[in-house]
Amino acid sequence: MVKRSEKVAVFAPCRVAFAGGGTDLPEYAGRFGGAVLSAAVSLGARVWVRPLDMRTVTLILDDFEIRADYGDGAEILQDPRAEVALVGRTLAELRPAGGVEVIVRTGLPPGSGLGASGAVGVAVAYALHLFAGRHPAKEEVAEAASVIEIEKLGRPIGRQDQYAAAFGGLNYFYFEKDDVRREPIDLAPSKRRDFESHFMLFFSGRCRDSAEVLAGQRQRVLEGDGQTLEQLHRLKALAHEMSSALEGGDWPRFGELMHDAWLAKKEVSANVADDRAAAACAGAREAGAWAVKVTGAGAGGFYLVMAPPAARDAVAAFLQGEGFERYDLAFDYDGVRAVDEEV
Question: Is residue 55 packed enough to be buried (19+ CB in 10 Å), middle (13-18) or exposed (0-12)?
Fold first, then answer.
């Protein structure tokens, strides 16, 4: 019999996608194959699991200021709150025997475009496995979290967030109907640091519902809309081109392609960028940035900026003058893992 742990703490990183976002949705990937180039980042989800004396479940979601107590897994699934659905369903699927307390925290605004829900799903699943004395492979956790969020909860998303959170690092992912292939991009440490020094992350102050943006895209793919498919094909091709530029250390070319990917993404859906987003991206490029894109599904959230180091201060000054908040950004190369952190 596997003995469960006294307590477990887990971290799973969020991600920034450079190109290919949207091609991982099942409706596209199942027909054409999708590709995403992304980097895991140091912002992410933290989960603590601790035993309780009573055979109950206590769920604490710090980001939403929610605390809830449940008698069993079925009671969790009856909670109507959307904020509880992902963690509640994961708990119901993977709950260990006995009482348990689960605390979840990202410190990020909901709907910010960094794939936080995918990181949460991966972190909770991994923590529950560890708590029960199991040590699953990262691919197993990524797939389980994807199935829960996409199939069980019916959310109109792809699998890039869960796989980036599980594996960490710089990756080129290829998505098919029943398969995910990962090609890690291994740069020398000095190249990693140089590449990373070209990026900054800013929060716009506005959140958005990615489901609304992605649901429209999904419907247009199902209907065979020519423009949507053309731009998604373009985004997939750009993800491949950018991976080659990344491996070759050609940062200006990478920035040029990242800008092309942003233009293609705007053509996929009119909801990706409003006037403020378009003006911010244009102004940052005028200040010296090579590329600026809204992360995730768009329409708010975080902005990822790529600029030569000499232009970073000018670009940051422009965006901060427009009311954007700068966040510390570092890439994460370890993926989901146990950590020694107290609540």
Answer: exposed
Closest CA to 49 of 123, 115, 148: 123
Tokens 């199902």 map to which residue? 222
Domain ranges for the chain, please list them. Answer: 8-187+332-338, 189-327
**Confidence label for 1 from pLDDT (cuts 50, 70 and 90):** very low
Q: Which helix (H) or strand (E) holds 16?
A: strand 8-19
Question: Looking at the domain that runs over 189-327, which CATH code has it been given?
Answer: 3.30.70.890
DSSP 55: S
End-to-end CA distance of the chain: 29
Take residue 302 and report the two structure tokens written for it: 């975080």
- State how beta strands 57-61 and 99-105 pair: parallel
By the 8 A CB rule, do 293 and 38 touch?
no
Quick one: which of 335, 339, 341 has its CA closest to 137? Answer: 335
Report the DSSP pairing between strands 291-294 and 302-306: antiparallel
Q: Model-level pTM?
A: 0.94
163-186 confidence digits (pLDDT tens): 999 999 999 999 998 899 999 999
- Please name the amino acid found at residue 317: A
**How high is the pLDDT of residue 156?**
86
As a dihedral over the C-alpha atoms of residue 261, residue 266, residue 271, residue 275, rounded to 10 degrees, the angle is 110
In sequence order, the 6+-apart residues with CB closer than 8 A to the CB of 162 are 118, 121, 122, 142, 143, 145, 146, 149
CATH of domain 8-187+332-338: 3.30.230.10
Query: Which of 6, 305, 58, 38 lies closest to 162 in space, CA to CA?
Result: 38
| CB neighbours of residue 318 within 10 Å | 19
Q: What is the pLDDT of residue 2?
A: 41
| Mean pLDDT of the chain, nearest integer | 91
Whole-angstrom distance, CA of residue 70 vs CA of residue 55: 9
